[in-house]
Amino acid sequence: xxxxxxxxxxxxxxxxxxxxxxxxxxxxxxxxxxxxxxxxxxxxxxxxxxxxxxxxxxxxxxxxxxxxxxxxxxxxxxxxxxxxxxxxxxxxxxxxxxxxxxxxxxxxxxxxxxxxxxxxxxxxxxxxxxxxxxxxxxxxxxxxxxxxxxxxxxxxxxxxxxxxxxxxxxxxxxxxxxxxxxx
Amino acid sequence: xxxxxxxxxxxxxxxxxxxxxxxxxxxxxxxxxxxxxxxxxxxxxxxxxxxxxxxxxxxxxxxxxxxxxxxxxxxxxxxxxxxxxxxxxxxxxxxxxxxxxxxxxxxxxxxxxxxxxxxxxxxxxxxxxxxxxxxxxx
Lengths: 183, 138
Description:
By secondary structure, chain A is α+β, with helices and mostly antiparallel strands.
């Protein structure tokens, strides 16, 4: 079905996919803040176990802030981040997917960070996190560089990443996180 | 130098920043709420500076007797960038502890009883800094 062929199709499609939150466009702090205010209420209203809703919320914050901080195709003082995010229910719990363009200069560092996470088990991830907590510093973009680590740890390492090379040298970065009720 | 020389730092909580009460006159030091500020550096920078000044102030107090202080963290949520700064605050508390044998600093780490992540991160901070932590449910 072509989801945009009618509002009904869009509605049905999102309903079948059990979408809780979805957003495409400019990511500003204001928008991220409002999405999170909504999510906090929505997750606590539903009959989900508190521990799961807490994890979903925490991972949602980090995922959104990741797009907000790093989703600029070209980094200038006026550049606004753009991207996409969806949070939806699955039979086992929840799934969060985000996507954003990453500027060419940031790609190598991001690939390195991702590789370091991919090859680590949960204990190693926690050690890396601890190390960054003690020794790390705040980057020029205002982050502590531990958001992806935090997502990996909170999801019990149920995270995967992909890079899609684009024509102009930048990349489209995808982050998928699974939050299972039992993990 | 008496307590009037050490100014309070008081911030109201918002949807994305915690309320902060650092009040020597009331002898109350509490962080409460959620932390995911738009600019972590500018939110926590002033707070870290306050702790440095407090350290100098408490060192002077310690010359004339025992000084015992308790800093309370009653946070529901904080993002990874905030975690870095909370770590820095606790490290400052550790430094203050070391300024004089008369100084005894404690952290009260409050958590919702079924929030395992909050307990765990508190235990991490305790282990990484060696500061005396008291764990209390709210």
